Amino acid sequence: MMPVVFISSPDLWKHRRRGKHPAVPDRLEWTFELLSAYGAFDGPNVKLLAPRVGSADELARFHTRDYIRAVKAFSEMAERELNPRPPHASMYGFGNGDNPIFAGMCEGASLRAGGALQAVELILRGEARTVFHYAGGQHHARPAQTSGFCIFNDAALACFAFADRGWRVAYIDIDAHHGDGVQAAFYDTAQVLTISIHESGKTLYPGSGFTSECGSGTGAGYSVNLPLLAGTTDEIYLEGFHALVPRLVRAYQPDVLVTELGADGHWRDPLTHLKLTTRAYIEIARTLRSFDLPWLALGGGGYDPLATTRVWTLLFGKMIDKEFSNELPQAFTQKRGGDYLRDRVPPQVSEEIETRAHLELNARLDELSELIPFWNK
Fold it and tell me: Which helix (H) or strand (E) covers residue 355, if one does?
């Protein structure tokens, strides 16, 4: 039996943006600690690997050479200066807001990209069938710009690596934010089907991901978006997921799944407005596994580090067919504290919001049934 591979290393969480930036690396370290405390890596069917660095040539499959050089130069500048202000930083998307320059950013982003490409290699060589690269999922980055906390788009690079070998890729993105960078990369091709289920761009960054964005040219109908209203709960989210994803995967018949498993749809997330609990994530993982396809799982968003830790732990549990108790291991609680990761009941959503969210879901599904050419296959 091929092992399930988990890609992790302390090098992934050693670099930190200054100040109170929401994209803290703690969630990576804590997820590794919690999985270790549960004994998730002890079985013969699990293999733990450190990521490799993605080379400039590999990054250039999606990113421009000029942008790659700029990221490296800005990162080196931040090693020498406390608050670097390089000329033309803004033309690459860097500034003092969401995407600051910080020391080690090129190394960290290159490791995230390299880890995704390493995962692709393992699957292509038949050395693994499921790989969880939880530090990946940087789905907003563009060829010549950082965007939405993302520097190098490992998700797009992984999809290119499979597609370049002739594999048909189904990319499924459950991050609360629209997977705009990956969609843009494959908007005009049918070789990568992109599916993004997210909070509506009317209320959340990046302000895109509407049903009308469905591809162009030979890719017409192969970009699929399901935007959801703020306040969407497990029941409505899962209704949409089950109505859309299995049907499209069956019709498309991919060779591999690449998924972005952002945990920022959780009700405790401070940046988003969905109301999901861990129950939804567990059911999503169960469904994805049921397709019985090679599966590269990437992380993504998640800005309550504790909730994200719990979500990713439970998702990996489904990948290795292991249940994790709500009773947290003592080895973890002694280091990180008490019962803050236990499932709790989310804030109540009014009947009016539930009704509106359900009507919105049905309207969007009706639109997609007209826009996606292979919907009824």
Answer: helix 351-371
Per-residue pLDDT tens over the stretch 160-188: 999 999 999 999 999 999 999 999 999 99
Dist. CA 139–CA 206, nearest whole Å: 11
Longest CA span, the chain: 58
Look up 140 and say whether it is catalytic. yes
Q: How many whole angstroms separate alpha carbon 174 and alpha carbon 375?
A: 20
**Cβ–Cβ < 8 Å for 153, 138:** yes
Identify any residues that bridge with 276 across adjacent strands, giving them in sequence order. Answer: 266
Q: Cα(198)–Cα(85) distance, rounded to whole angstroms?
A: 34
One of 133, 139, 140, 198 is an active-site residue; which one? 140
Q: Return d(Cα 266, Cα 263) in angstroms, integer.
A: 6
Q: Is 202 exposed, middle or buried (0-12, 13-18, 19+ CB in 10 A)?
A: exposed
Bigger pLDDT: 87 vs 73 = 73
Q: What is the mean pLDDT of residues 310-326?
A: 94
Q: In what order do the strands lie in the sheet with 256-260?
A: 46-49, 4-7, 130-133, 295-298, 256-260, 169-173, 192-199, 223-228
**pLDDT tens digits for range 215-255:** 999 999 999 999 999 999 999 999 999 999 999 999 999 99
Spatial distance between the Cα atoms of 296 and 197, rounded to a whole number of angstroms: 18
- Structure tokens that stand for 258 in this block: 């690449």
DSSP 19-78: SS-S--THHHHHHHHHHHHTTTT-STTEEEEPPPPPPHHHHTTTS-HHHHHHHHHHHHHH
Taken as a whole, the chain contains a residue count of 377
Task: Answer yes or no: is pLDDT of 375 > 70.
Answer: no
Q: Which residues pair with 224 in a beta bridge?
A: 195
Compute CA distances 80 → 73, 74, 102, whole Å: 11, 10, 10
State the pLDDT at residue 352.
94
Prediction pTM value: 0.96
Tokens of 139: 């789905």
Cis, peptide link before residue 206, omega less than 30° from 0: yes
